[in-house]
Structure formats: C-alpha cells, structure tokens
User: What shape does this take?
Amino acid sequence: MPPLTVEDIQDLVLSTLEELGRGRWTDMTSDLQDHIAMRRILNERAVRMQGGKHVQFNAQVRTGQAAKNVGLAATDDVNVVDVLTQGQVPWRHSTTNYAWDRREFNMNNPSAKQIVDLIQVRRNSAWIDLAELMERNFWGKPSDSSDKLTPMGIDYWLVRNTTEGFNGGDPAGFSDGAADLPVSEYPRWQNWTAQYEDVSKTDLVRKMRKAARFCRFRAPVPHPDYNTGDNYGYYTNYNVVGTMEELLEAQNDSLGNDVASKDGQAMFRRRPVEWVPFLEDDEGDPVYGINWGVFHPFFLSGEYLREDPPQKNPFAHTVVEVHVDLTYNFICRDRRRQFIIAK
Assistant: This one.
C-alpha cells in the first residue's frame, strides 16, 4: 500500500465522517454519570441562534402609571414614560480538537475500517472533553466581572439567599448585576430563594410548592413575550432525590416485593426531579427550578458546534487536525421565573 498523504487522509475523513458510529468500546473517561448541559446543547430545538456583538433582550421594568379613577369632564393628564430597558450578555467561546499523524495509518492495519476507528476514538475523546467543560460552565459562573472567558452559567443567574422570596440579588463579583441589570435599580430582577433543613413534605417539598406557585407569572395584557411556555425542569443531587424516592415509598402501601420500586420516579408537579452528578460535591444540597421557556443556550449564528474540515497543522506537516468551535452563552431573560432552594 503506498503511503497516505495528508490530502488522501482529508478525503477519507470527509467521506467517512458520517459513519463514525460503528465502532464500539468501553468509555471510562469521566467521573460524571450524566451531562445535563450537553444534552440541552445537542438538542437544536432547545437552543437559540442570534447575530450581533452580544446577546441583548428587552425588559419592561415599569409602567406609565396612567390609569386612575376620574369624574365627569375630568382634565386629561398624559405623560410619556420610558418603560423599557435592555439586558445584555457578552459572547463566550469554547473549542476542542483532535489530530493524527499520517504515519499512524501506515503503522496500523491498512483497511478502511481501522482508519475510521482511529479517527472515531480521537473525535470521541475531543467531544467528551467538550461535554465535561460544558457541564462546568453550565452549573458555574465567571469568578467576577474581570473574567472574560467563562460563560454565564446557572450560578450567575440563580443567586442563593437564606430568606424566602424574590431575594436572589446580583451575582457575586458583578456590581452591575446579571445582564447589566442591578437589583438596586430593578428589584424585580431577582430569582426566588429559600432555605431548608430536611427533605420532607413539611420542609423542602412545601417550599418547592410555594416557589413554583410564586414563580408562575401571567401577563395581565397579552403581548409578544420571550417565554415559550412554562417548561420547568427540577435538578438536584442524590442526597435530595434519593430521599424523595423514599418519601414516595412511604406514601404507597402496595409496593410489592421491589425494595427500590420508586427509584428514578421522583416527580414534582408532574415533572421528573433529575439527578445532576455534577452537584454531588455541593454541600448545600440545592434544588434548582429552571424554566426552559426563558432560559436558553444562545449561539452566534454560524458558530453552533462548528466542526471544520481536516487541515494540515502549520507547524507539523505530517499532522492533520480538526477543530470544533462554538460561540455562545447561557441566557436567562426572566429571573423571576427561576428558583433555588438550598440548605
């Protein structure tokens, strides 16, 4: 078999890239049993595309106080008041890559299947790295306003507070507030918070029920709204969801012989309570109520998990590399529809 050139390998990869699902192996690369963030990102129906130098959204923060009770022939008093402001969030960028040396193919079995297997393993490794990074980004936050690399994750938008109510203030390190909307100026721009001690119906569950009720807003006058529907997800660690499953067993008198009959069946308001492995180290045992109707991953148009064709490394002429890039951020356009309850 004649030696493969970089150009030959590029053609081979491009012609077989869609067939990379045939190989099999055991994956032992991650400590996390599941990656919530990557599942949302790979669901194209759950993401939003937008152009521009940053993501911007409109927020009506006041009314003109125009309504009043009047008598006959009352004098009109009309004032024009600015009622809108804009929130904005910068783009963030992430990347992953994989590569191979053309001589690796000549050291292996020359069959096409062997070549595809090599590429598949390298590509899978790069995407696992990206999934791990996305999970850290999604559940975290930038350290402060000087951090220009980390995306605005959950802890940026959902701020904890021990007092029950809409008390989720500005994220730590951001004096200008989340999306440049400080709560000192816009006090309604706060998520719901509460503190609990026990996973019980009279403590945590009761607080979750109140949070879910108070976070459901109905506009008094229909208008074009960002909310695509109150589509809530509930997320926590095993300390919480495991105890919830025991609560289910305690309220059912006919479980039969299955000693774990309610495992994986914990629900709240007819939606599953999902276990998030990334939250296992969180000593606050938080419960997040995320309304995906107003919380989305946003991507710059044309930069949604963009996987470029194979190209020669400019500093190593026998090496071929592939890069996957994304320009994005996580955007919440209504913090009042979100809640976090923690110890």
Notes: The two ends are 65 Å apart (CA to CA).
